[in-house]
C-alpha cells in the first residue's frame, strides 16, 4: 500500500447539520465530487456528493460492501457491534457482494414485486385508515410519529413478509436503535447490548414460529435455511434487515415529506385538492428530502482513484443521496419543491445491484400514508415551531423523532373507495 496524504475531514454532525444539511452539501458539490468527512462516532469516510459521480459510484464494480474489505482504521471505529451478534446479524444484503448477494436477493425480490404490492393496496389502505380512526380526539396536539408514522410502515411490512399478529404485537420499536451502535466505553453501551440481545431472541422466536408452517416471505426464508440455501447467520441477518431497515426509513420518509409540505402550504393544499398528483408528488418529495440521506459503507480492495481523488484500500466510501438529489446539473432549481417535476430520476432508493428491493412497497406506503392524512385530517398543520422539531441524530438517515400536529375537528369519514393516487 502506498502512503497517502489525507485531507482534514469535514464534520457531519450537530443539530444545525441534521436540521438542514443541504447548504453544506452544496458547498461540497461546488468544490468537487469526493470529500473526506468525519462522523460523530469518530469514523472517517470518503463522501461522494454530485449526481453523476454518485450514480457511477453506486454501480462501480471495484467497490465492495463486505465488511471484511474494511481496513483496521475503519474497523476500530465502525465495526463495534459485539460478538456473537456481529457475526450472526451482520451478513445481510447490505453487507454482501456477488455471487452471495445475488443468491440472497433472489429470495426476497418476489415478495416486494410491484404486482404483489398492488394486490395488497386495499389492505394497506385499511391499516392507514384504522390508525387515523384511532387518533386522539379533543383538538390537542397529536404526535404523528407515535400515532401513525411509526406504526403504519411496520404493520404494512408485517403483511408483506408474513409476520403473524402474535409476533408483530411483540416487536419493540426501540430495537431499531441497534443499527447505530455505541462504543465500548460509552455509558449507554449496556442498554445497547441489552436491546441487541432482546432483538436476537425475538428473531429466534420468529424463526421457530415460521418453521412450524405458514405463508409469506419469512416462512420461505426459514425453508431456504432448512434446505441449505442460507446459513443460519444469513437467515437471522436477513430477518434483522427486514425488521429494521424495512420499516424505519419509511417512518422517517413520512416525516420528511410532511415537513416539506408544511413548509410549502401551497403544495400541500394543491395535493389535497388534486389527489391524482400523488404519485408524482411522492417522487418529488423523495428527491427533495430523502430519508436515506447517506448510503452504507463501500470499500476498495486496493488503493485507487475515485473521481480524481486517491482513496486508500479499506477506507469507507459513502454516497450522499440527498446531495445527489439536489445537484443543479441534474435537477433545475433543485432546492424548489416542484410537484410537476419529471419523476423517476432521483437516487432516493439507490442505484445498481443494491437498489432498494422494497422500493415498490415504500412508494405505495408513502402514497397511501400522505393521501390518507391529507384527505381525512382537515387543516393538518404543525403544532410546534418548525425550528424546534427533533431531527434524529442518525448517521445515515433523516427524519424527525416526533411530529406534533393539529387538525380541525374530527377526521373525515373514510371514503367509500380509494381515490386516484391513494
From TrEMBL:
Sorted UniProt keywords: Heme, Iron, Metal-binding, Monooxygenase, Oxidoreductase
GO molecular function, a single term: monooxygenase activity
InterPro entries referenced in this protein's UniProt entry, alphabetically: Cyt_P450, Cyt_P450_B, Cyt_P450_CS, Cyt_P450_sf
Superkingdom in the source lineage: Bacteria
Keyword tRNA-binding listed: no
PROSITE patterns recorded: CYTOCHROME_P450 (PS00086)
Entry similarity comment: Belongs to the cytochrome P450 family.
Protein name according to UniProt: Cytochrome P450
Natural source organism: Streptomyces caatingaensis
Amino acid at each position: 500500500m502506498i502512503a497517502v496524504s489525507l485531507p482534514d475531514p469535514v464534520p457531519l454532525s450537530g443539530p444545525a447539520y441534521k436540521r438542514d444539511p443541504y447548504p453544506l452539501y452544496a458547498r461540497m458539490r461546488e468544490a468537487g465530487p469526493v470529500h473526506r468527512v468525519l462522523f460523530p462516532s469518530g469514523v472517517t469516510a470518503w463522501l461522494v456528493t454530485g449526481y453523476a459521480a454518485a450514480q457511477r459510484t453506486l454501480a462501480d464494480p471495484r467497490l465492495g460492501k463486505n465488511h471484511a474489505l474494511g481496513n483496521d482504521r475503519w474497523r476500530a471505529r465502525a465495526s463495534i457491534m459485539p460478538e456473537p451478534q456481529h457475526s450472526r446479524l451482520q451478513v445481510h444484503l447490505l453487507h454482501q457482494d456477488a455471487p452471495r448477494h445475488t443468491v440472497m436477493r433472489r429470495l426476497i425480490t418476489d415478495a416486494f414485486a410491484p404486482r404483489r404490492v398492488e394486490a395488497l393496496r386495499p389492505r394497506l389502505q385499511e391499516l392507514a385508515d384504522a390508525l387515523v380512526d384511532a387518533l386522539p380526539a379533543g383538538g390537542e396536539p397529536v404526535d404523528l410519529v407515535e400515532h401513525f408514522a411509526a406504526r403504519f410502515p411496520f404493520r404494512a411490512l408485517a403483511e408483506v413478509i408474513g409476520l403473524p399478529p402474535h409476533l408483530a404485537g411483540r416487536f419493540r420499536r426501540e430495537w431499531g436503535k441497534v443499527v447505530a451502535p455505541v462504543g465500548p466505553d460509552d455509558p449507554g453501551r449496556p442498554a445497547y447490548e441489552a436491546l441487541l440481545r432482546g432483538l436476537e431472541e425475538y428473531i429466534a422466536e420468529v424463526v421457530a414460529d415460521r418453521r412450524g408452517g405458514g405463508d409469506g416471505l419469512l416462512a420461505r426464508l426459514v425453508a431456504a435455511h432448512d434446505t441449505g440455501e442460507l446459513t443460519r447467520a444469513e437467515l437471522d441477518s436477513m430477518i434483522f434487515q427486514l425488521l429494521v431497515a424495512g420499516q424505519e426509513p419509511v417512518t422517517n420518509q413520512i416525516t420528511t415529506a410532511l415537513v416539506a409540505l408544511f413548509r410549502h402550504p401551497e403544495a400541500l393544499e394543491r395535493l389535497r385538492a388534486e389527489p391524482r398528483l400523488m404519485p408524482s408528488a411522492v417522487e418529488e418529495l423523495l428527491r427533495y428530502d430523502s430519508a436515506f440521506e447517506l448510503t452504507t459503507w463501500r470499500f476498495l480492495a486496493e488503493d485507487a482513484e475515485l473521481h480524481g481523488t486517491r482513496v486508500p484500500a479499506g477506507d469507507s466510501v459513502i454516497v450522499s443521496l440527498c446531495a445527489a438529489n439536489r445537484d443543479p446539473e441534474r435537477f433545475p432549481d433543485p432546492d424548489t419543491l416542484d410537484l410537476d417535476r419529471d419523476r423517476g430520476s432521483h437516487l432516493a432508493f439507490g442505484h445498481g445491484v443494491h437498489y432498494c428491493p422494497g422500493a415498490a412497497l415504500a412508494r405505495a406506503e408513502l402514497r397511501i400514508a400522505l393521501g390518507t392524512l391529507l384527505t381525512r385530517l382537515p387543516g393538518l398543520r404543525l403544532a410546534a415551531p418548525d425550528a424546534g422539531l427533533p431531527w434524529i441524530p442518525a448517521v445515515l438517515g433523516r427524519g424527525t423523532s416526533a411530529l406534533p400536529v393539529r387538525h380541525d375537528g374530527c377526521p373525515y369519514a373514510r371514503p367509500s373507495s380509494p381515490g386516484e393516487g391513494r
